[in-house]
Design brief:
The structure is a single chain. The chain has 377 residues and is an alpha+beta fold. The protein has one domain: Jelly Rolls, CATH 2.60.120. Helices cover 45% and strands 17% of the residues. Strands 2, 3, 4, 5, 6, 8, 11, 13 and 14 form a nine-stranded mixed sheet that branches. Strands 1-10-9-12-7 form a five-stranded mixed sheet. Strand 9 and strand 10 form a beta hairpin.
């Protein structure tokens, strides 16, 4: 876990500080622009679980459509247009093979916290258990450990996987975690390539090569994507709802959240100006097929700030939050953060920006730079 924490700190430093360069000024200005959108969304009270208000895409059809394709069908193009118009989020129905991987991951998440609950003191700290409580300045809830979530972070590195095995006491834990990591990396790469192809008028094979270069292949150390096995705090019994995670957008290409069986995630749909509960939508869509791990078949895909930069704002980063209604069970979650790799982050620090505080001008420069990183196919 030490290496994972070190990489996380390195990335945070790169994102914001950027060696005191003009990029630091740009990222601060860009963040301010994004937070203006978040503030507007926070003022919206309407929440919906209407299927018509969200996007549902079958991952199997996307995979088939991309095999050897030089262009996409009208349905795919329409999906990308709606994905863009709705605020960069979609509910994805996974293939049977991927659903099995996610079901195993949910079993691992439950086991991890069962084992952690048995420990105390230093033994508990040594598991690498961490805590996050993202409360923005406009949220009324005080920043305390009454809200937020505890999590164990996993990535593709041996140190992370061995630490997970130590918690569970089972060598199979690392395979389950790595299968989940690889599956979600592939899903995110495919979706990003599809969106890039349509929005940037890029030949698909080139778009897929670009995304692999930006993200890094699963077996490469420069890849710094990660997954969190998380458990939220219990909902307050004194309030109608607990804001467990305040409204925000992520520093990712995509944040992919396998659907929890306890609804709590809300995404902001900019076209209807409504907060959508995609986990509730997934439950409605599953209908009578609610097996013990029905939720393994679905994941919520949300655009991050790096995808917004890559597409020069054609896809906006998804505004989302986690709300726990009173008298609900504790929510388990397993968000996956598909990130730019270390080499790309290093390169971004040195992009020359003549007007770093001009978000429109500098975003275009960043977009052109990221698009230009494509390898010859």
């Amino acid at each position: 876990m030490g290496l994972s924490m070190s990489l996380d700190r390195q990335q945070q430093k790169r994102q914001v500080e950027s060696k005191q360069s003009s990029c630091r000024q740009f990222f601060e200005a860009f963040n301010d622009r994004v937070n203006e959108r978040v503030d507007k969304a926070d003022r919206v009270q309407c929440v919906s679980s209407d299927m018509s208000d969200t996007l549902l895409v079958n991952m199997t059809s996307i995979t088939v459509a991309q095999q050897g394709a030089t262009f996409f069908s009208e349905d795919t193009i329409n999906f990308v247009k709606r994905f863009t118009a709705n605020g960069g989020s979609a509910l994805v129905r996974l293939s049977e093979k991927d659903a099995e991987v996610m079901s195993n991951m949910w079993g691992l998440a439950s086991t991890v916290f069962d084992e952690i609950d048995r420990l105390e003191g230093e033994d508990r700290k040594n598991t690498g258990l961490r805590y996050q409580n993202l409360i923005r300045r406009n949220d009324k809830l005080a920043t305390s450990k009454k809200a937020g979530y505890n999590y164990v972070e996993t990535n593709n590195r041996d140190e992370s996987l061995r630490a997970l095995e130590d918690i569970v006491g089972n060598s199979s834990a690392s395979k389950v975690a790595l299968d989940s990591w690889n599956t979600l990396t592939e899903i995110g790469t495919q979706l990003a390539a599809m969106i890039t192809t349509v929005l940037l008028s890029m030949e698909h094979r080139k778009a897929h090569t670009l995304m692999e270069h930006l993200i890094g292949r699963p077996d490469e150390e420069k890849s710094i994507s990660f997954q969190r096995l998380a458990r939220y705090m219990e909902a307050s019994q004194e309030e109608e709802r607990t804001m467990n995670l305040g409204s925000h957008c992520d520093w990712s290409i995509f944040t992919i959240v396998p659907v929890s069986d306890v609804s709590g995630l809300q995404v902001y749909d900019i076209s209807s100006q409504t907060w959508i509960c995609p986990e509730a939508v997934a439950r409605i869509h599953a209908g009578n097929n609610l097996s013990e791990r029905w939720n393994g078949s679905y994941a919520v895909v949300m655009a991050g700030k790096y995808l917004e930069l890559l597409t020069n704002g054609k896809v906006e980063s998804t505004i989302h939050r986690v709300v726990s209604p009173r008298n609900t069970a504790r929510r388990y979650s397993a968000p996956f953060f598909l990130r730019l790799n270390l080499e790309v982050l290093d390169a971004l620090e040195n992009v020359p920006l003549e007007q770093p505080n001009n978000v429109l001008v500098s975003s275009l420069a960043m977009s052109k730079f990221l698009q230009g990183l494509s390898l010859s196919s």
